[in-house]
Amino acid sequence: MKRSSRGGMTLVEVLVAITLVSLLTAGMLAAMRAGAAALESSSRRIESLRRASGAQRILHHQVAGFLPVMARCGGSPVQLGGPPVMFFQGLPSVARFVTTYSIREGNRGRPQIVELFVVPRPEGGVRLLANEIPYTGPDGAGFFCLPPQRDPETGAVLPVFPPPQPSPGSFVLADRLAYCRFLYLLDTGGPQQLWLPLWNRIDLWPAAIRIEMAGLDPAGSALPPLTFTGPFRQNRLPGEQYEW
């Protein structure tokens, strides 16, 4: 009588099989983590580009709606300000002017005094903010500036504006920026363009504004370097009568 025998796996074969399954599982987990990280990075980059596109669109509408208005600086609800002066401020990190475009109401709202300004971030870098204040005419705009004074650094006589302040109502146009700076175009009438970091003229409006900015990490998922350039389309000189 023959003895029946059964085939089986040895301990070494079981250990090899377990090792192979473990390696396959580890490889699949690593691939899944890499895919999730790539998806998250792509999502952040797409979101940054979407925000950059939205900021460009807002800036385009604000500059396209530029109004060359005057203001009686130094006024108050109980007292008129001084003689009308050009309502415009152009600094390397602040631009203040009047526009027909409102972020809240679009082109259908009332004209707005817009304040574009750069502030530091607690985590590092800077962000670009915007404030909107309804424009109510030369007398109302005069509440937001003081009569012209001579600048001790440039010698130019300019209206004095208080620094814009961030508030819960401020709009964040761009965040996580390595830098953000404003330049203003002086129309020389020739082929060459002259971009100035400071606008110190009260007898002429700038022909355009340029805003240069870049993200904190251009090599990663942050906002890539970009430049917005918008012309101030107007056909009035400061001092001409303008009523809204």
Unreliable runs: none
Question: Biggest β-sheet, characterized?
Answer: 9 strands, antiparallel
- Alpha-carbon Rg, integer: 30 Å
Strand content: 25-35%
Helix count, per DSSP? 2
For the residues shown, what is the average pLDDT? Answer: 82
What is the H-and-E element order? Answer: HEEEEEEEHEEEEEE
Number of strands: 13
What's the quaternary structure here?
single chain
Globally, the shape reads elongated
Task: Explain what this protein looks like in three dimensions.
- The protein is α+β, with helices and mostly antiparallel strands and 244 residues long.
- It contains two helices and 13 strands, in the order αβββββββαββββββ.
- The strands form three sheets. Strands 1, 4, 5, 6, 7, 10, 11, 12 and 13 form a nine-stranded antiparallel beta sheet that branches. Strands 2-3 form a two-stranded antiparallel ribbon. A two-stranded antiparallel ribbon has the order 8-9.
- β10 and β11 form a beta hairpin.
- It is elongated.
